[in-house]
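User: Hey, my collaborator sent me this sequence without any context and asked if I could get a structure. I don't really work with proteins. Can you help?
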Amino acid sequence: MALAAVPALAGGQMFEGKVTMTMTSPRGATPIEMYLKDGVSRMEMQTPQGGAIATIIDPVKKEMIMIIPERNMYMKRSTEPTANPNAPAPAERTKADIKKTGKTETIAGMSCEHYTVTEETGETDVCLASGMGTFMGMGGGMGRGMGGGMGGGMGRGMGGGGGGGAQMAWSRDLEKGMFPLKATNKEGQVVLLVTAIEKKKLDATMFGIPDGFQDVSGMMGGGGGRPPRF
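Assistant: No problem. I've predicted the 3D structure and written it out in structure-token form, which is a compact way to encode the shape of the chain:
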């Protein structure tokens, strides 16, 4: 159950704790657990095949790490679009127009403010909370950082092939520290909903590479091989 209330973050302090959410695409709903500490985020989800994947993004280091626990392996990439010369060029798009609506809402005990996000594909209503840290959404730094080669299961899990990235392309245009608690698309479907927020201390080891895991980064576009399917 969500906290009754999450206190405001004083003095610009970043949120630390766990956020539980559901992302919905044409393929169905995907439950996700996200952990946030010092601006770094770790997202845990299940692939359609039932395997677990954890993705860590550090915006300061401009680095993303994908960890596959059941295979004792990990992949590391820069989140800079030009860092991987073998990565496909990102599709050109016009930056989303994000405007306040003046409406507020409390979701999972956290206050957020509604914005209308306008893109070429239409409008999305997004309720944004401040001071929460990096949001790893469909269409954000995640796909670009891995050079577009996240493998079959990961891409499908994040929104059904290419559809998910287009569905939440606006997430890359959010200002630093703005975290969506709810997003409703132009058809009126809630495509993202935070269901619980738990403010707590997290162990720093959650945001690093486990001991003994094999680096297979070369399989994600840097070494010429096909990316593994999960």
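In plain terms: The radius of gyration is 17 Å. You can pass these tokens on to your collaborator as they are.
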